[in-house]
Amino acid sequence: MALLLLLFLANILTISEGTCEPGIVKQIHLLRPRSGAGGNSIPGLSCLSWRLAVETNNIIGWKTVPEECEEYVGHYMLGKQYRKDSRAVAKEAFLYAQSLKLAGDGKDIWIFDIDETTLSNTPYYAQHGF
Asked: Where is the signal peptide (predicted)?
């Protein structure tokens, strides 16, 4: 009976600690974090919120990365996640381009545009780094 209990507990531990992708950190963020007025800030969380707001164009007219988020943005842009995000976007753009039906009359053209975020951040990063 003791052996059965030991095997059961070992199995539960293995299942609860296992992950389908190695290296994934299990982060839990509170829906209403206790930060800001009257609370202690949670390191990195405000930068995650700032990044999401910028990416969804909910912060309009920002000129530079907030000073407290420089390290976060630098780690993101030089890290694996930025490359993964870029690959995902490039793949979707490629699939979209493949799905288009061209007229075949030689008048079809592609116009490539540079995202305004890249234009606004490039001089800042060139001068200040991350």
From this structure: 1-18
Cβ count near 69 (within 10 Å): 20
User: Could you read off the pLDDT of 49-106 as tens digits, one per residue?
Assistant: 888 888 898 888 888 888 888 888 888 877 788 889 888 988 998 999 899 988 889 8
For residue 30, being part of any structural domain is answered with no
d(CA 97, CA 94): 5
Query: Widest CA span of the chain, in angstroms?
Result: 79
CA triplet 41, 46, 47: central angle to 5 degrees?
A: 135
CB-CB contact of 130 with 71 (8 Å): yes
36 assigned to some structural domain: no
What six digits make up the tokens of 8?
């059961």
Query: What is the model's pTM?
Result: 0.49
Cβ–Cβ contacts within 10 Å for residue 65, how many? Answer: 21
- Asked, for residue 18, whether it belongs to a domain, the answer is no
Counting the structural domains of the chain, the total is 1
79: its two tokens: 């890290």
Name which of 57, 50, 55 is nearest 72 in CA terms: 50
